[in-house]
């Protein structure tokens, strides 16, 4: 009998037994896997790609490190644009955001405490969202808060009741039409008034919710840890439809939020499956699976899709933990290209390029059309490289004002040139960071494990 079978048998008849089992698995996997100020050159006009040798990313790590200098492709980006809000994870429902505007020299403006901090058993994984000149957050104890985006003043707090004190699985938050939608690890979904924090409605699902909800076409879309997806009416919380993906017993801590465009909802599951559903009915239009090709250890063989799928130009970029990244046709699911790249961070997609952090601590720049490697940059792996101790987990990237911003579990914020991959600057904070940075109205927001919300501008 395996360890998982023993745990499942022993917890089968206990209240919230399946929650305890998932928490044990998530904690073990998280522990194992945990194992900016200069502006680069930028080009305001689009130019034709220069001729030269192109290198496939279907290569091992040594090939990436040694051959990317031979790729002769010039990276160019459109001018930065200002976004006022960041209402959902990934920015908007497609998770595609433009090159965003921010100050060249970022300075801390304010800092606020959002509630309970993460610890050995609880990790703060839910990113803030921004709308109506407010920043909304949720802590590890399900305390939902609203802050003035300009100065960090606390506007209101609402505590979501926990059904089980000793169980905490990450849920999430999203904003839509004057309401804040909150999901929890206790199989609950709430609608709150964004101005007061008062609860408007509450509903339950059959299993804990592992990520922030997608809000699209007046529907609230949530994904549970047993790979079910539910759609609720955003006004009254009534269930509209449900669908199910392939079952999977193990996954990476946290989860991806679905994406949507043109009446199609893309749902990523912990099994590595991605489904395209009809938004009105939940009918499956097509599906694909980013199965792992097998790793040397149990962790590397996990096929979970933790990164949000990104939709642009009727195509979808999807990256899985198991070592496969692909570009799919939105309407048919046909693979345009697929590369042996694994990741748990949402890639930043532009018209011509993709920037992504890999599971082997590299930042890559790829061409979007064909997935060809442009440059690769090795990221620090350990806080103490000499002793190979204190493994660093990197989060991001965020493309803002001609630099890629990433945050680290060592408490640092790195700035990297999107044009060359060179390091541009570093900011050190006191607490670890396990959440990607976001930007709205020129402010860059970072949420630390110490439950500190920090605004830079």
Quick recap of the structure?
The chain has 457 residues and is mostly beta strands. It is 7% helix and 36% strand. A four-stranded antiparallel sheet has the order 1-34-33-32, with no helix packed on it. A four-stranded antiparallel sheet has the order 2-3-4-5, with no helix packed on it.
Can you give a write-up of this model?
The protein has 457 residues and is mostly beta strands. The protein has a domain at 1-33. Helix content is 7%, strand content 36%. The chain has helices spanning 3-11, 17-33, 61-67, and strands at 108-113, 129-131, 134-138, 143-148, 154-159, 172-176, 179-183, 188-193, 199-204, 214-216, 219-223, 228-233, 239-244, 259-261, 264-268, 273-278, 284-289, 310-312, 315-319, 325-329, 335-339, 348-349, 353-357, 362-367, 373-378, 382-384, 389-391, 394-399, 404-408, 412-416, 423-428, 438-440, 443-447, 452-456. The strands form nine sheets. The protein has a four-stranded antiparallel beta sheet, with no helix packed on it. A four-stranded antiparallel beta sheet has the order 2-3-4-5, with no helix packed on it. Strands 6-7-8-9 form a four-stranded antiparallel beta sheet, with no helix packed on it. A hairpin with a 4-residue loop joins strand 26 and strand 27. The N and C termini lie far apart (55 Å). Residues 1-63 and 65-70 have low confidence and may be disordered.
């Amino acid at each position: 009998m395996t360890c998982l079978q023993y745990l499942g048998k022993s917890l089968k008849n206990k209240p919230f037994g399946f929650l305890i089992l998932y928490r044990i698995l998530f904690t073990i996997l998280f522990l194992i896997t945990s194992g900016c100020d200069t502006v680069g050159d930028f080009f305001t006009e689009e130019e034709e790609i220069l001729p030269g040798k192109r290198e496939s990313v279907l290569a091992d790590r040594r090939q990436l490190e040694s051959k990317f200098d031979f790729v002769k492709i010039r990276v160019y980006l459109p001018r930065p644009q200002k976004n006022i809000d960041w209402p959902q994870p990934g920015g908007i429902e497609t998770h595609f955001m433009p090159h965003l505007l921010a100050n060249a020299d970022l300075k801390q403006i304010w800092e606020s405490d959002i509630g309970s901090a993460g610890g050995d058993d609880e990790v703060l994984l839910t990113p803030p969202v921004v709308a109506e000149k407010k920043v909304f957050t949720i802590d590890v104890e399900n305390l939902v808060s609203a802050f003035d985006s300009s100065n960090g003043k606390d506007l209101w707090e609402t505590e979501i009741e926990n059904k089980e004190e000793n169980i905490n699985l990450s849920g999430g938050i999203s904003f839509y039409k004057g309401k804040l939608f909150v999901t929890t690890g206790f199989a609950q979904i709430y609608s709150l008034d964004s101005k007061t924090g008062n609860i408007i409605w509450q509903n339950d699902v059959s299993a804990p919710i592992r990520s922030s909800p997608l809000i699209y076409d007046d529907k609230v879309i949530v994904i549970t840890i047993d790979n079910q997806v539910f759609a609720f009416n955003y006004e009254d919380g009534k269930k509209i439809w449900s669908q199910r993906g392939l079952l999977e017993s193990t996954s990476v801590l946290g989860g991806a939020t679905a994406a949507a465009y043109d009446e199609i909802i893309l749902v990523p599951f912990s099994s590595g499956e991605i489904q395209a559903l009809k938004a009105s009915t939940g009918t499956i239009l097509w599906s694909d699976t980013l199965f792992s090709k097998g790793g040397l250890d149990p962790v590397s063989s996990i096929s979970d899709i933790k990164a949000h799928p990104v939709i642009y130009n009727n195509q979808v970029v999807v990256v899985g933990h198991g070592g496969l990244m692909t570009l799919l046709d939105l309407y048919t699911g046909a693979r345009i290209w697929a590369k042996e790249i694994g990741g748990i961070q949402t890639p930043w997609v532009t018209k011509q390029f993709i920037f992504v952090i890999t599971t082997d601590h590299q930042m890559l720049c790829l061409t979007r059309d064909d997935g060809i490697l442009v440059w690769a940059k090795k990221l620090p792996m350990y806080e103490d490289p000499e002793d190979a101790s204190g493994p660093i987990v990197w989060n991001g990237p965020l493309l803002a004002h001609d630099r890629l911003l990433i945050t680290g579990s060592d408490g640092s914020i790195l700035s990297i040139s999107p044009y060359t991959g060179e390091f541009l600057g570093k900011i050190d904070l006191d607490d670890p960071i396990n959440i990607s940075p976001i930007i709205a109205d020129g402010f860059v927001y970072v949420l630390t494990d110490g439950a500190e919300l920090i605004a830079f501008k």
